[in-house]
Amino acid sequence: MEFGHILGLWSENLLPAATLTLKTGTLVTGDTLASVVDGDPAAGFAITGKRIELLADFGAPVHLRTLALGHHNLDQGLTVQVRAYDDPDDPPDLTIAVAVGAKDRYGYRPDLWCNVDATAPLASYQYWSWAADAADNTNNIAVGEAYGTALRNRLPYGFVKASGGRGIDLDVIRNETYSGTALKAVKGFPRAAWTGSVSGSLSLIESLEAWWLDNLASTRPLLFVPDAAAAEVAFAELVPDSFRRTRIGGLATASLQIRQLSRGMVYP
Questions:
Q1: Which member of 60, 113, 120, 171 lies 3.0 to 4.6 Å from 187 by CB, making a disulfide possible if both were Cys?
Q2: What is the SS3 assignment for 207?
């Protein structure tokens, strides 16, 4: 099974360069739209109601292949739309529905992503948006992060899932009392981690390591799909010091880890 897709590195996110406005909705006082393109899903914005359209004006037509919306509080069963316009004062020229799935075991809603290529592979518009008319949502709408890219990458060199390739990463504090009793406290928030491995020629593994080092320096997230057959996406990062390689003769094996960024507090 293929380990997964990297749908885009942060440097390939076009939304930070766009002009963001709320076509529908009013920001909570003190929040800013820029917070959804800062690379931190835990820090976003909220609006004062349950109808929203977050509009991005790119200044000229752009072809987006993938859009994602991270750490939101939309309830399971609601339908969100990706819309595209030549003129935002007219009805949308393109509409793609995206269903909101179930919460995970920790109460987080699933990050949403839209594969524009599957519906409109040549779509090019100046205005793109995420929209939701969520009158039945439990709370007023909040959003943590947004992403849009014209590119689509795969993890290079055919990575495959390692055995038990998904885990949960938590910061843990361990202490002992004077009597030797061990105490353990969990600090932080649960986030998924995936480990993958690949075997091949030494030159292939060296190329992979060079790719790793080039991208490890980024302080911004990448957009990662753990399983191409599942509607799951994560704002994630390469885990420092997780790259390992072994060599036997002219063959080598390498493994690395990708970890979901912290999403902060769970929305009620």
A1: 171
A2: helix
